[in-house]
């Protein structure tokens, strides 16, 4: 029984490719081999085995045929999954740069047999070696690298950046592409016979072209022409996107020249001299700044060359300390006199502060603030603005330099809802002469702006401790005077008035009067207050029991007073019924205690 088997031409393949080789690199081929089955030498007559027959066997054939199936790659290393593929006709294609090294994978072929019902399948091992050397196709030249990396120090010239390459006298080299390109980028020249690249003008690593590069570099594409051209094309700009994919070309090499930094830049401050404020002792007891200020210098150099350390110099430097890493300055002593000022110098040194570093200075004058120099400002809060941004906005609004002593984010309840605000205690410094701006002027300049929610002046708190003590004594004296006046009033109404005919009170509990107001008889008949007193009730009868005493309240009525002469006088009086007392108060007129009176109301 003849059988058809699919097989690759080779049981395994070894492919050697150059780094940067992109495109179709190899074509796999398969053959059909016919085998004949024979009976195994066993007791089981149904057992068969396949045996490869000699080439002259009539049932054996080995033919290359038109492959109609498909090829696939299996067991592909993870780093090659997106960089390799095989076409249906067996062509292996490289899609991207593959790092130098050894790789292995399987190539699998599947097709139908002669009867179109049998599936034929075979696999072969593929070993790949990626080298970083590319061979030149021209017989007149030798080898050049597909990619090479070199290092040159900035601000140097007249050096060889890329060594030359031996070649036939029939070949010439040129720089076909370059990054950066354009005005001011004519850094190199090339030896046309050897390909050696020389630096002819210094390169500044901190130039604009290298700002966004993690590793500032110049890229060159060097082209070899075999045979040489009479007039090689002019150098063209190279795009950085082309660096990630090196198109395979054995006559071209890509060169990366990494610019090594030198300490060729000094630290710089935004200003040469600044005036800042700090509270005098009395103010500092109420308003406590976190620090005097924070300074910052910048250095364009990279690495240790750009690392800055801060220090202080000057006669008043001992009254302050600075964080050498962050540049934050703190006061170590306070003053009581706002008319004094202090000065010192901040030194910024690069190269991590070492002796061979370069330095620059910033002069600082400290003026001391009273409450008359300070206002409290509340502004709308924004997560995209820090206090420095707010200070800059306030400075623009007011026309003076505004700086903050304190900065807090608070929540306030306004119009039935919570609102987040930034609250700053600020002062102002004139941009022209560095003088302090009065709080009243600063408030006036800031007042008319939608950014600001409220401004509170603090300069009315500037009274010293002696004045505060005097005011406290005055307030205490006024308080005791008021108490004395109240006591005199109580004494007057409690004793003097009780001697007159104005008020008579009776105790509700023991039903006896606490003072005999009139020696005569007092007769009373309840008439108008019917909601409280029964018609036949006896409300007030001196030296006797009381009946039907009404609840707490007041009844105003007309009172008829009858004296000893039987003359009747109509009075406006008021009867008050309190918790423990019954009080008869005559609104006008007075009688002698000797008069015998009758009150009808």
TrEMBL record:
Location of the region described as Disordered in the Swiss-Prot/TrEMBL record: 37-56
InterPro entries: Cadherin-like_dom, Cadherin-like_sf, Cadherin_CS
GO molecular function, a single term: calcium ion binding
Subcellular location: Membrane
Keyword Transmembrane helix in annotation: yes
A Gene Ontology cellular-component term: plasma membrane
Ranges of residues in domain Cadherin: 172-269, 292-381
Transmembrane segments: 473-493
Protein's recorded name: Cadherin domain-containing protein
Species of the source: Acyrthosiphon pisum (Pea aphid)
């Amino acid at each position: 029984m003849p059988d058809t088997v699919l097989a690759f031409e080779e049981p395994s393949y070894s492919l050697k490719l150059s780094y940067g080789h992109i495109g179709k690199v190899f074509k796999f081929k398969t053959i059909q081999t016919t085998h004949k089955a024979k009976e195994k030498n066993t007791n089981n007559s149904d057992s068969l085995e396949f045996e490869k027959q000699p080439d002259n066997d009539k049932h054996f054939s080995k033919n290359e045929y038109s492959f109609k199936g498909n090829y696939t790659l299996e067991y592909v290393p993870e780093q090659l999954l997106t960089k390799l593929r095989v076409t249906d006709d067996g062509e292996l294609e490289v899609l991207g740069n593959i790092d130098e090294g050894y790789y292995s994978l399987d190539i699998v072929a599947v097709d139908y047999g002669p009867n179109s019902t049998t599936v034929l399948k075979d696999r072969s091992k593929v070993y790949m070696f990626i080298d970083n050397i590319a061979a030149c196709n021209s017989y007149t030249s030798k080898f050049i690298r597909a990619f090479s990396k070199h290092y040159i120090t900035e601000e140097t010239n007249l050096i060889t950046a890329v060594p030359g390459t031996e070649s036939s006298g029939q070949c010439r080299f040129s720089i076909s592409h370059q990054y950066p390109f354009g005005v001011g980028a004519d850094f190199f020249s090339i030896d046309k016979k050897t390909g050696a690249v020389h630096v002819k003008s210094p390169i500044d690593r901190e130039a604009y072209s290298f700002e966004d590069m993690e590793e500032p570099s110049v890229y060159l594409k060097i082209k070899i022409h075999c045979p040489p051209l009479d007039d090689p094309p002019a150098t063209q700009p190279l795009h950085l996107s082309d660096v990630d994919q090196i198109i395979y070309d054995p006559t071209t090499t890509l060169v990366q020249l990494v610019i090594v930094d030198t300490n060729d830049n000094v630290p710089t401050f935004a200003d040469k001299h600044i005036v800042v404020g700090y509270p005098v002792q009395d103010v500092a007891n109420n308003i406590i700044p976190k620090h005097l200020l924070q300074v910052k210098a910048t250095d364009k150099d990279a690495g240790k060359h750009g690392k800055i350390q801060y220090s202080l110099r000057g006669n008043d430097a001992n009254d302050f300390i600075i964080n050498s890493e962050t540049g934050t300055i703190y006061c170590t002593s306070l003053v009581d006199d706002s008319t004094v000022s202090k000065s010192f110098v901040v030194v910024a040194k690069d190269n991590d502060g070492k002796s061979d570093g370069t330095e620059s200075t910033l002069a600082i004058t400290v003026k001391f603030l009273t409450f008359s120099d300070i206002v409290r400002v509340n502004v709308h809060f924004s997560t995209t603005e820090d206090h420095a941004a707010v200070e800059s906005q306030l400075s623009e609004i007011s026309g003076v330099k505004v700086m903050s002593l304190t900065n807090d984010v608070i929540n306030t309840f306004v119009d039935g809802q919570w609102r987040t605000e930034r609250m700053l205690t600020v002062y102002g410094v004139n941009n022209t002469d560095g003088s302090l701006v009065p709080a009243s002027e600063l408030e006036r300049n800031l007042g008319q702006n939608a950014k600001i929610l409220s401004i509170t002046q603090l300069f009315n708190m500037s009274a010293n401790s002696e004045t505060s003590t005097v005011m406290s004594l005055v307030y205490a004296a006024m308080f005791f005077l008021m108490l004395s006046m109240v006591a005199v009033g109580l004494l007057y109404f409690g004793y003097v008035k009780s001697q007159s005919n104005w008020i008579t009170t009776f105790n509700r509990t023991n039903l006896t009067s606490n003072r005999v107001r009139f020696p005569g008889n007092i007769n009373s008949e309840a008439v108008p207050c019917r909601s409280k007193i029964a018609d036949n009730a006896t409300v007030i009868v001196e030296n006797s029991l009381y009946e039907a005493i009404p609840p707490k309240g007041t009844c105003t009525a007309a009172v008829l007073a009858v004296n000893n002469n039987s003359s009747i006088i109509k009075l406006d009086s008021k009867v008050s019924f309190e918790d423990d007392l019954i009080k008869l108060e005559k609104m006008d007129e007075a009688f002698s205690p000797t008069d015998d009176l009758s009150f009808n109301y």
